[in-house]
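$ run holo --ligand "zinc ion" --emit tokens
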Amino acid sequence: MRKKYDHHVGTIIVNQMALTVLGIETSCDETVAAVYQEGRGIVSNELFSQIDLHKLYGGVMPEIASRAHLEKINEIVAHALKKANVTLDDVDVVAVTCKPGLPGSLLVGVCFAKAIAWAKHKKLIGVNHLEGHAFSAFLEHDVPFPHICITASGGHTSMYLVHDFGKYEVLGTTMDDAAGEAFDKIAKLIDLPYPGGPEIEKLAREVNFQDFFHYPRGRKKRLDFSFSGLKTAVLYDLVKKNAYDMQTKIFLKKDDELFKQQVASSLLVCITDIFKEKVKLALKEHPHVKALTFVGGVACNKYIKQELKMFCEKRRLQFYTPSAQYCTDNAAMIAFVGYYKAKKNHFSDFDLDIF
Ligand code: KG4
Ligand code: ZN
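-- output --
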């Protein structure tokens, strides 16, 4: 027998066999399942993106999100197992995002994971979505410890000092809006579709990433992030430039392509500067770190990545960022965290709840 499972003692004994972890992620608007195998790494990461369902509303609609997860999860998990060339019987551990996220969406993933784990006598591990992002660079790179990690997504922007797998300190977090949220909200102000980040990047490239309007960087000497002030500053600047009507909430320069490019470019340069400024501050406090990782949906942005890479090169700091499929929400990062937690015997009980 390859392994022994005891419900009461709760240990897995694997006879020199590689651990296989099924990861499930449903915290927001992507239904994802992945398989991580010890020795092989990520062997599948199957995704159903709900972006088209939410586009109409300019943001994620929680009720629609949870219903779509419910419809898709079975199929996505089956695809992930098939692509990995394994069956549920080969899986040792089911790792699932249990926090933070939209309650209805999280519940679908957690209930599904519990059902599989219970029925098939597998171990269960609840994973913090943000820990998943924070270690996502390891899916493709050997990142040295200690390092600084910037996680920038639609829901969160945080900076961590990462000591080891599962061992990290929060250096700063978002006080209000996340960086991705700032991209999305400001994009909406100038009539761009959701999600705003990629649209802003496209427009900014057209004008060579110049800083036309010098939006405020909020130069407070602290490691926390705040982006809602930036949104207000852009809004007032649009009003001042007769480009936005506050009363009707209508953008008045819909056909002025150059103006939209200028707003997008100024915004992107501003947010990039904010990241650089925060890392500079963090390095003053933690000069011994060996690398910087940049993860989360916003890390898909080629301009920010290039700027941070140059910033690190100047300081002889290694720089790592995941490929786009592992920047946005994915289950590979959840399976990976599940894997190192399983190696440490950090399993969850079946009363695992969402947060
Ligand atoms: O990590 P993610 O897929 O989901 C959350 O956990 O929120 O991040 C989504 C966010 C959105 O706000 C989106 O606008 C942003 O990532 N994003 C970008 C780019 N691609 C996606 N932001 C800036 N530039 C991009 N190229
Ligand atoms: Zn995320």
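-- notes --
Residues 1-15 have pLDDT under 50 and may be disordered.
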